[in-house]
Amino acid sequence: MFKVGFAGTAKNTGKTTALMYFLQQAFAGCQRVGLSGIGYDGEDLDHLTGLPKPRVFCPRGTIIATAQRCLARGTASCRLLEVLPVSNALGPICLAEVVNPGLAVIAGPNKRGDLRRTLKAFARGGCELVFVDGAFGRMSPFVEVDGLILATGAARNRALDCLVRETRALDRIFTLPAAVLKGAVEGENTIVIWGQGGGTIRFRETSLLSPELVQEVARAAASAEVISLPGAVPGRLLGKFSRELGEDLAGKTLIVSDPTKLLVLGEYVEAVAALDQIAAFGGRVMVRERIPLLAVTINPFYPREVNNTFCKDFIDGNLLKQALAAVTRVPVINVREGGPAYYLDTARREVVTIDN
Amino acid sequence: MMAAERKKILLVPLDPVHDVGLKLIRRALKEAGHDTLLLPPGLEPNEVVSKLLEQNGVDFVLVSRTIGYRVGELLAEFVDLVEACGVRERVILVVGGMAVRPELAAELGFDAGFGSGTTPEEVVAYVEGRPFVAGKERGTGKKKVDLTAGYSYAYRNREIEKQLDLITQEILTWVGNKTSPAVERARLAFSALRGEIEPGEFREKYLGYCDDLVRDYYNHRRLPNRTRLLDREELDALERHQHWEGISTAVREGLPRPAIFIQYGTGCPIMDIMHIKTCEAWGADGVVHFDPSWGARTEGLLAGYLAHSEDGTVITLENLRLLKEYLWPGTLWQVRAHRGLNTPETVVLAGEVGADLTKINMVYASLGAGMDPARMTVDGVEAIRWAVHYGLSFDVVTNEELCGVPAYKAFAGMLIVAHLARKMGGRPILQPLFCRSPEVMIYGQMKDNYIDYNAAKILALQGIIDAPLWPGAPIGFLTHTEDRVQSAVTTALHACLARSLGVEAISIASSDEAYAGGPIVAASRIDTLRGTYEGFRFFGSAGIEPTSRAQEWAQELVAGITRVLKDVASSGSFVQALYRGLLGSPEDGAYPGRVGRGTLLRKEPGEDV
After folding, report:
1. In the 8-state DSSP scheme, what is residue B603?
2. Touching check for A47 and chain B: CB below 8 Å?
3. Which residue, of A253, B58, B246, B418, has the fewest CB within 10 Å?
4. What's the confidence (pLDDT) of residue B310?
């Protein structure tokens, strides 16, 4: 079973629209498809902006994982397969098969452990391909998927240069090399420093969350070889860490758990600036677990606030696509461009790649 | 002593300045014996998570934030950070604030979400893992109540009691051996529902007492105009639509009275159910079934799941059963039977299906609803007999006031029916109108205020008899305009007056009911329920003080009632009194009806219920 996450850099960046096209394509390929999401999708109007949202259409045979009470909120008829030992703010989550196609409301597991348990249930249900829709800019649960399709666009930032900078940063973070920890530090889930005669220093903390802790870890790491940071590493604090160590970073390896840990608080650009600085000092950053980036989808739409309400607006989609394609190695797809046929072709190539 | 396991709770105002809501919740949590730590406002998400990680064994993180521009992103980043730090599985994250709903909480990654109106007790219940079934504490006032409990029906005005005795004895004697097609159908329906009669025999006999419209339906499946049968798909869709959110809070919140009734009758039972569920969720105590006016002028009831494209939902056994199935168990249900050719049979169906209340008044039916007084008297007595059989209490409405009949005459009629019911073992509820009736428009009793004359009506009735009162229907009738805010306000004020006068129940309209010109919308129901709630909240146990005019008018009403009752008693015939206008005349605006005239039958010897 292959698991694909649809993450967005912000709300309204086109995650659900992208997911819908991939879902149709997967059915065209006759695969048994599972569908869930870590947010709340399928409502006709956005909870916050009040603007219309893309609906989630499920073909017959789709296996969905959603809050049980949401089954009745769509038009798709579903057969209940299993109530999972997992719940969200709307109650217990269930696995159900769509027996009559229609619209569905998807509110699935919204934390990593619950997503893992849900994905296992999809596997038991015989799914070959599972799509997991994202919510807002939340990335952390996607540690559980095999590949990520990233949606970005004007809803994240209307300034093209900012989107370019961010997309470059995201591409860089998702392509960090993988490291394997072995021996005594293999199972560590707090900050650990070791190597070059300094012995092994274990911290109580998992994450670099305060300037004080950054200073403390940097002091301890001055003569170390490897610094393992298993928890969250916000970009700004990674920058401070880099500055604290400066030239002492030469020859050092920082190991982060996975790319999502560098994306917290939306500080991608700051994280990449820190990665550049570390590299300039002769250090390097690796991840214990990679999450392959499969494609970037773009959406020129953004909700514009006018007199305390929101209306639709767009930036230039062609310019956006060209600019982003120049800074990432994966395909960049405009969800509003070329119609479904173009998009489906692109999607097919990606799905074939996934299959291989 | 604390019953629940002690929990450790971190309270986080993820807001630049506001933490009042969390302080209230902290107090409730501390009182319940839990450990709490309230962080200062204005911390960044990473600072909050640092504090969370410093604390050992935090069970819950309660985040408070009003939703606004970019706040969704901020909250999502916070949740993501908790996850990235590896502690998400160990803590339960809860978000609360204006505009927060469970759907938004799910989208943001929280385990629960509480919006405006949440009480600290609700949060404590959640933390303790107790079901707060949409308001265990707040909903306690929504237990089904007996509106007649505690009333002795003893008269405080002996003269009126004496006249009522004379009149009602005459009525019972007059009805004697008379029967009607409706009386016979009711008995047949009762037998059929108990399986005491073969379906074929029932049908043949039943249709013998029906109009062509009903016979055509049963014999040729020919539907009356503007009706259709609901199809299987529609009924299945209703069955699938099971995510009723339950009861939030009672409008009267914990106080025994008055019970708040709304009236439904969209024509479609499925739409009715949507309206009922909306009103239950916004605190209504009871619902009243309205049927189409043509149904009341047709001999015989139809069958099946029938929808009607105009006002009023057709009374059939199936429609009533469907509605009953979806009613919350604590909701009082009234099925009106008061003003048509199917009055006794409607009471039988209501009783069989499990209604709590019905509505019977042959005076109003005769003078304001087009029914022949003689026929309606026979049917009314039979309907009361069935209501007693099923233990259904019923209100005696005085809508003839809306035709122009002055209140004292309408009240005289109401008291006759109520006294008759008492003689037969029933538990009637008096229903004076709280309205700006033609009478007050002409004579100016509401020129200065709406309080005094409405209060006078209640004071008059309370001075006559110890009986439950249920002003309606709806309260504030003819004070409403097409302006929804105005309508909700006037309804709320009339409700507060009714509460101040100590009545048992009130019926309220939606804020668009008087001027909808078609179907009313659910939002307008919420207008008046919310308005009434706020009115009750505002006045609490404080009362509304009428001027001295109220007492003067009450005395005038009692004098008028006494005079009318004496006239009716001395006339020697209640039915003739109706024809002659003693209880409301053409000059007043009341005309004895003709529907069902000449249809009375003679009872077989020895036959009785």
Report:
1. P
2. yes
3. B246
4. 79
* Chain B residue with Cα closest to A108: B106
Identify which of B53, B88, B111 has the shortest CB distance to residue A205. B53
Give the C-alpha separation, B416 to B360, whole Å: 12
Q: What is the C-alpha to C-alpha distance for residues B578 and B568, in angstroms, rounded to an integer?
A: 9
- Same domain, yes or no, for B56 and B202? no
- Kindly state whether residue B596 falls inside one of the protein's structural domains: no
pLDDT at B400 over 80: yes
Judge whether A88 is closer than 8 Å to chain B, CB to CB.
yes
How far off is chain A from B112, nearest CA to CA, in Å?
A: 4
Quote the CA–CA distance of A155 and A176 in Å, as a whole number.
Answer: 27
User: What are the C-alpha distances in Å from A305 to residues A54, A137, A302?
Assistant: 20, 20, 9
Tell me the C-alpha distance between B131 and A319, whole Å: 54
Residue A348's pLDDT is 45
Q: What is the CATH number of the domain that holds B73?
A: 3.40.50.280
ipTM of the complex: 0.87
**Backbone dihedral angles phi then psi of residue A320, each to the nearest 5 degrees:** -60, -45
**And the tokens for B326?**
């979806």
User: Cα distance from A258 to chain B (closest Cα, Å)?
Assistant: 10
Mean pLDDT of B44-49: 92
Both B129 and B193 in one domain: the answer is no
In this structure, chain A runs to a length of 356
Nearest CA to B429 out of B415, B443, B442, B446 is that of B415
What length does chain B have? Answer: 609
Alpha carbon distance A195, B301 (integer Å): 91
Q: Do B81 and A107 touch (CB under 8 A)?
A: no
Percent helix / strand / coil, chain B, rounded to 5: 45, 15, 40
Read off the pLDDT of residues B450-461 as tens digits, 9 standing for 90 and up.
999 999 999 999
- Strand order in A147-153's β-sheet? A77-88, A91-100, A63-67, A33-37, A129-133, A2-8, A147-153, A293-299, A332-334
Q: Is any Cβ of chain B less than 8 angstroms from the Cβ of A43?
A: yes
CA A104, A105, A109, A115 torsion-angle sign: positive
Indicate the CATH number for domain A177-287: 3.30.750
Kindly give, in sequence order, each residue whose CB lies less than 8 Å from that of residue B137, ignoring residues fewer than 6 positions away.
B119, B121, B122, B125
CA separation, residue B98 to residues A51, B67, B68, B532, B554 (Å): 19, 6, 9, 22, 47
Condensed to tens digits (0 to 9), the pLDDT of residues B194-237 reads 889 998 999 999 999 999 999 999 999 899 888 899 988 888 77
CATH number of B271's domain: 3.20.20.440
Q: Of the candidates B67, B72, B113, which has its C-beta nearest A11's C-beta?
A: B72
pLDDT at B132: 56
Q: Residue B103 is part of which domain span?
A: 8-142
B77 part of contact set with chain A, CB < 8 Å: yes
Question: In terms of DSSP H, where are the helices of B424-483?
Answer: 438-443, 451-464
d(CA A347, CA B120): 50
Q: Is B250 helix (H, G, I), strand (E, B) or coil?
A: coil
Q: Is A190 on the interface with B (CB under 8 A)?
A: no
pLDDT at B20 over 80: no
Which residues on chain A are in Cβ contact (under 8 Å) with B45? 265
B595 in Cβ contact with B372 (< 8 Å): yes
Question: Domain coordinates of chain A in residue numbers?
Answer: 2-173+291-355, 177-287
Rounded CA separation B284/B266 (Å): 17
Partner-chain residue, chosen from A48, A87, A207, that has the shortest CB–CB distance to B84? A207
Distance CA A327, CA A112 (A): 30
- Class for domain A2-173+291-355, per CATH? alpha beta
Whether B590 is in a domain gets the answer: no
CB pairs below 8 Å between A and B: how many?
132
**Strand partners for A82:** A95
